[in-house]
Each structure stands twice: as C-alpha cells, then as structure tokens.
Amino acid sequence: MTLDRHRASGSLGESREGWSFTKSRLYLDCPRAFHLAREANRSGINESGGAIPRHVINLSSLVGIAVHQSIADQIDRWVGGFQMSLREAQSHASAWLTSVLGDSEHLVTEKANGLHINSGILSKLTSSAKSRLHTFFLAAWPQFRGHEYVLHETLRSFCIQANRVWVKVDLCTKNPDGEFVITDWKTGRPSILQEDMLQMSTYVLWAAAEFSIRASDVHVRLANLRTGEMATHKVLTSHLAEATDRISRECRMWSNWDSGGFLPLPEVQKCYSCRSLRMCNEGQEVTSASAGRPA
Ligand code: SF4
Question: I need a surface site. Which of 30, 208, 247, 292 has the fewest CB within 10 A?
Fold first, then answer.
C-alpha cells in the first residue's frame, strides 16, 4: 500500500526550522505547544523524554490525512496516464484508517495520552473519508479537465525577508489559458476566512518566487470536499503584504522569546491532542480533571 505519505514526510508544521502555515496555526492554538514541539524536535527528545513522536496523529486529522493521501495516489495515476478510481481511493483510505486505529496506542495522539476511544470511531471516520472522496470525484476533479499538471503534495520552500518559509501544495496545475492554479483540498469544517487568506497568500508568494511569475497571475482554489463547493479566490496585493508582515513578525517573535513567552492555553480536547501533554503541567491539570470521558 502506498498510502503512507504522512509518515514518510513527518509533520511539516513542526519538523523543520522556519515558518509554515501549520506552525503558525499551532502557535495560535497554544504558544506553549508550539514551543515544546520545537524544542523536542531540536533536541531529539522522544517518547522517553516526554514528547510523543511526530508520526503519531491526532484523531481530528485522520480523515484529512486519509483523504489527502488517497487523492495524491490517484493524481499519481493521472500523471502516469492511468485511469483514476474512486473505489480504489476509498479502499486505500479505509485500509489506512483501519491500520492506524488498529494500533491506536502507538499511532493516535489521544490514545497515547490515555483517552478512551469509542469503538464506533472507525466506521464513522471511514464513512467521512469515503464521502469526501466521492465528492472529490463527482464535483471537484471534473473541473480540472484540460489542466496541465505541474506538481502535487510536494514540499517546497522559499525565503521571505531572510526567513525560510515551507509550503506543501495539494495540487498545482496550469489551466487551459496557461494560468497557474493552486488547489487546496478542504476536508473539515470551513475555517476562518482570515486564516484561509494567510494560507492562500503564502501559496501565491511561493508560486511567484518558484516560477518567476507575477503574483497576480496565480489563482488559488479552495475545494471543499464536504460540500463540493469550489471557490477560486483573488489574492490582493494587500493580502500578500499582510502575509509577509505576519510571517516576518512571527519569525522574529519565535526566535527572540525565551520559553516564558510561550504561554499555555489549556483546553481538555486540545490537550489530549497535544504531543507535549506529558511535559505540560497546565495540560495535565485539565485532562486529569476530565479523566474517563470518551473521545
Ligand atoms: S498540553 Fe495543552 S496547554 Fe499544554 S502545551 Fe499542550 S495544548 Fe498547550
């Protein structure tokens, strides 16, 4: 089974020095979690030191990873000139979810953190993944007819004001008019538009740098695989300036602060999903107060 891109690449958000959208979201979610994850990566602390390894996955990310990997495998087939297959994509996603949940103590963060996981979770997640893949084949993929392949699921980096910025684009194509189209598959609930705009702006800045083109010639599509909605967004110069400012500001803060600057923002669900729970007193307080509650 080729459906193992997640483990091969680790977590983009935490494993490399520099800025990424995933890191920025982790920082917003809990500055302490961001700091502890970064320190664990730098010093190579593993389970024995308290941090849960990077290949262990949050429950809330499982469907997204299964769907993204299945789509990436199908795009591999398209690029190779082979027929794409909904059935094969669904069966890969289902097999991957079964294997991860079958070893949840070692592969699912919440379980590794001592949370009981309901037995019905596998069929629920499998059904969600299959539904999103169905939407991909039915509503999203037909809209790429006539597109030329550029790249997909590829890790790239570029520089903004001497800061290394990492992106992993779900799919980059050229439309029949020769314009670059960057597509992001969305599998969860609609996110905050401001955060979408930061992610899209980062993609546009990367494409402009990578292909030496004008930012205004790059289109960004958000494909919502829950609803089938495909929205093409115009990223304005002001959005690019805001993204550049935010990236520079966060890189400055992250390198200048000592550990005391990274405050914890404990919440039960968030802390059970945190790889650094065993190293965080505040997180342990809220999770032990709720012990026994199932996922
Ligand atoms: S356990 Fe909770 S409070 Fe502590 S670092 Fe993780 S998310 Fe933040």
Answer: 292
